[in-house]
TrEMBL record, chain B:
One of its GO terms (biological process) is transmembrane transport. Belongs to the binding-protein-dependent transport system permease family. OppBC subfamily. Its main location: membrane. The lineage of its organism: Bacteria, Pseudomonadati, Pseudomonadota, Alphaproteobacteria, Rhodobacterales. It is found in: Cell membrane. This is ABC transporter permease subunit. The keyword Transmembrane applies.
Amino acid sequence: MTHGAFPMTPFLKQTGKTLFSLALTFLGLLIVTFIIARVVPVDPVTAILGERATGEQIAEMRAKLGLDDPIWKQFGIYLWDVIHFDLGTSIRTREPVLEEVGRYFPATLELSTLATIFGVLFGVPAGVLGATRPGSVFDQFTRLFGLIGYSVPVFWLSLIGLLLFYGQLGWVGGPGRLDSMYDMMYDMKVPAVTHMILIDTALAGEWDMWRNAVSHIILPAGILAWLSMAYISRMTRSFMMNEMGQEYITTARVKGMPEGRVIWVHGLRNTMVPLITVIALSYAYLLEGAVLTETIFAWPGLGRYITDALLIGDMPAVLGGTIVVGAVYIGLNMLSDILYRLADPRAR
Amino acid sequence: MTWNEWLLDPNPKSRAQSRAGQAWLQWLRFRRNHLAMAGLFITLALVLAAIFAPWIAPHDPIAQSLADRLQPPLTPGHLMGTDDFGRDILSRILYGSRITLYIVGLVILTAPVAGLIIGTVAGYFGGWVDAVLMRITDIFLAFPKLILALALVAVLGKGMENAVLAIALTSWPPYARVARAETLTVRNSDYIAAVRLQGAGATRIIWGHVMPMCLPSVIIRVTLDMAGIILTAAGLGFLGLGVQPPDPEWGVMISAGRKFLFEQWWVATMPGLAIFLVSLGFNLMGDGLRDVLDPKGAR
């Protein structure tokens, strides 16, 4: 960090550029979802009115939905709606999609946040230790562990995890966020503050329920953490290898600085900049990677919401969910971009 | 002159000889990497299994035999057991390798080619062509891949071809990026200027002189992506959106075994092991290939 004369203007200019490209990307996202929604073989009019509607009813509905307008006007209306947080109405539940997404999203957020925390806590030290002792048994082991994380189908790993830790050993809770006993009392005992069970139960002081929630989240979060760790440790290792060969490291060593300080303070601090991007990317990836995991653990998150909607052809819900995930994804990318520039004086 | 001498001749007599010599040296380097060799063997095993499936599979992969349903592994005649329709799991996995290979093949024949064309055109022409094409690429990169693939399959309908199309449509942007970066480094070089002065048109220059320079980086990317393609395809199959039963696709098989996971664990476990092994093989081979073809990218 520089002090005193902070070169703010170029930074602001860059951030402005980032925001502009963010807006453009988001517009692109909407264009793509709009195209998908328009070429979908399910006719929205039949989906609402059913097969037996008369010609007049159909014509009326088409006019009401604006399907007779020119395509650019339809897109304008779509854009206007989305900007005003209207993602349409779910065909299945007849509820506004955004409200439903708001209910499902915290569960996904809770799961992927926990997984990313684990991934960073284990992945960064593993990568650093691997880089300082390349070729050692520890290094080989971490690489193998990471490689397995890269190669394993996550839905299969989830099933095997359930089979082993829930079915055979009984160490963890099964599918769902709580045991059914707690599930029934949940709404009465715990006020919904954040919609994240671990936080809400802790706030309400329901520690039995909290422990039960932990036993349910630990397995899916652990599995996702493995994937995130595989990526984070590999990238940390490569960044650290690069730093440890630099001259300033040699200088620090020659000065007689303890090796631990050289590695963990000087070396690691300089890898922080690219690491921020890596961590943000892996977080964004987990948000979407949770789709398959959620299906298996009956986790009421966004991924499961989208796949469930998909299987019954509820397109507004699918596209609404896609837009939200896409927006979060784009947002995380931009955030990492800005953090990157804040952390690295050369990038300002 | 022995083969070795011919290959390592410091003064090759022809282009073919020099190329063969290069390839030989790269192979020697690749061979020293035991993990990469393991990956190569797994990949070869997959290809062989796919080719010879009808001869090595002990049973018909589709034929049902309800008397033999849910036999555990190591039952005589059923090394990996049977599923809920009494079909031999080993035979289904062997036939399933054909589907896996087919999907991977189709994707790597389409996505990288599209990416190559877009990237080289953007890089070669520059200006607004570059701005527009790269903006589109960025938009696709900003999409969460699996979710976009899901939405596309929802629109196109279930099935293997649509799954392939969805995966291809979501995986071309990184190739376009790589190809554009390579193009930018060569577009102002003297040899391109020389070809242009001889009167070659843009198409000819891009096709004949720019694309070949981008190929190595794109190929490395492809081998590293193959595992991801397999995992995505299996994931779509698992969700019931890709290949449809009764075809023995591995993801579909896991999905079918999910119902009796706790009682008959092998039905879901065996095909999952197959996916894991093949994807591990591709990853190991990809890492090794990158070390050989692109020493500066090695980590």
